[in-house]
Specification:
Largest sheet: 8 strands, parallel, barrel
Distance between the termini: 35 Å
Bound molecules: (3S,4R)-3-hydroxy-2-oxopiperidin-4-yl beta-D-xylopyranoside
Radius of gyration: 20 Å
CATH superfamily: Glycosidases
Strand content: 5-15%
Number of helices: 14
CATH class: Alpha Beta
Number of domains: 1
Order of helices and strands: HHHEHEHHEHHEHHEHEEHEHEH
Strand order of the largest sheet: 1-2-3-4-5-6-8-9
């Protein structure tokens, strides 16, 4: 049932969409919740949620039954897109916090923590266009620095008392080369300098928050160059005394986006353990920041697909949770119909993917049970 608060918080369009498309749940949500199971082991469990344009995949927040799942299962939320430059900053002078605030308010009402994703998604594809056309003037490095510092101070200044962990920089390592990406900002500032600047600025603005570098290097074959690049970046930051507390391992596991492999059989566990050993050996914590399972190339049959995904998830989470440095597990969405993977790298047969713990009818799946089992089996932190 939708409570009065939830009903009031829905926009008219969102309410209409929700009434049209959301079937009644029919069964109680499973207990203990993932949040409770995680907490018993000193872990924190949560999910991304999107307050995007109503009626789109990014508008999961508009679905009242989805909000019920979040309130029940999660101890921490993260904005799916609402803190990104391209959403917050339509132009250089405007900060539009309306969408981000809806999620902050919901989290506060339900006593949930919030992670901050992300202060600088340092990837040319994911900045607003104005960053390219902006007039950087006679001292372009100083102007680029001003933009970054002002941005971080504004966001952390607004939400810093509620957000205790920030993805300060996201995806700046190019998986193809292991080198750092170049953007309209870093061409003036320097590719490494912009990373250092972002972390120093974040530390000054949020002295007590966990500062995270977040990326998608993963345990599948083919990620070796990406892993090596991330290790080089982290080692350099530590050597230069840059304030960093944790690595965010996005954990989009499974098929990846390739057409020629199922992807489930290419996990390289020994190699991945070496990577994890190196990261934790630097004194860094681990955040599983965007967990989902990509079933792009699995056979269509739902029962066997769900089982294969649950088994892979369990194997992955058991490995990750064997490190006491792993303290946060966040799913990149809790319900299949709102998964970003529905819009990216479609399956050859065109059917819907099943990457998250709940199906399109708000019902828990074997993947949810796999997460619960992994938490129950995990050593206490
Ligand atoms: C994705 C969102 O889920 C999509 O809605 C959006 O269109 C693109 O970004 N790595 C990240 C996340 O760090 O921010 C991305 O989120 C998924 C991959």
């Amino acid at each position: 049932m939708m409570n009065r608060r939830q009903a009031l918080s829905l926009s008219a369009a969102g309410l209409l969409a929700a009434c049209q498309s959301v079937p009644a749940r029919g069964a109680a949500l499973p207990t203990p919740s993932l949040h409770q199971l995680a907490r018993e082991k000193g872990l924190r469990f949560g999910s991304a949620v999107g307050a995007g344009r109503p009626g789109t995949v990014t508008a999961s927040f508009d679905d009242p039954l989805y909000r019920e799942i979040l309130a029940h299962e999660c101890g921490v939320l993260v904005h799916e897109n609402e803190l990104k430059w391209y959403v917050l900053r339509p132009d250089v002078n405007t900060y539009d916090y309306a969408r981000a605030d809806r999620i902050m308010d919901f989290a506060a009402r339900h006593g949930m923590d919030v992670r901050g994703h992300t202060l600088v998604w340092h990837h040319p594809q994911w900045f607003p266009e104005w960053i390219e056309t902006h007039d950087y003037g006679a001292r372009p490095a100083a102007e680029a620095e001003r933009l970054v510092v002002e941005h971080i101070n504004a966001i952390v200044g607004r939400y810093g008392d509620r957000i205790d962990s920030w993805d300060v920089v996201n995806e700046t390592v190019d998986p193809a080369t292991g080198g750092l990406r170049r953007t309209a900002l870093s061409q003036h500032l320097g590719d490494q300098e912009i990373v250092d600047l972002a972390f120093h600025t974040a530390r000054a603005a949020a002295p007590n928050a966990q500062l995270v570098y977040n990326d998608y290097m993963s345990w599948e074959a083919g990620h070796e160059t990406h892993q090596a690049g991330v290790l080089r970046l982290l080692e350099g930051m530590k050597a230069r005394g840059v304030p960093i507390d944790a690595l965010g391992v996005q954990s989009h596991i499974g098929s990846g986006n390739s057409d020629d492999s199922v992807g489930f059989d290419t996990a390289r566990e020994a190699n991945w353990r070496r990577f994890m050993d190196e990261v934790t050996g630097m004194g860094l914590d681990i955040v599983i920041s965007e967990f989902d399972v990509h079933d792009k190339n699995l056979p269509a049959d739902i029962a066997s697909r769900d089982q294969a995904m649950a088994e892979l998830a369990r194997r992955y989470l058991d490995l990750m949770l064997s490190y006491p440095q792993t303290k946060d597990v966040l799913a990149w969405g809790m319900m299949d119909s709102y998964s970003w993977l529905q819009e990216n790298w479609p399956r050859a047969d065109g059917i819907a993917k099943r990457p998250t713990p709940y199906d399109a009818n708000h019902q828990p799946k074997p993947l949810r049970q796999a997460i619960a089992d992994a938490f129950m089996a995990a050593p206490a932190r």
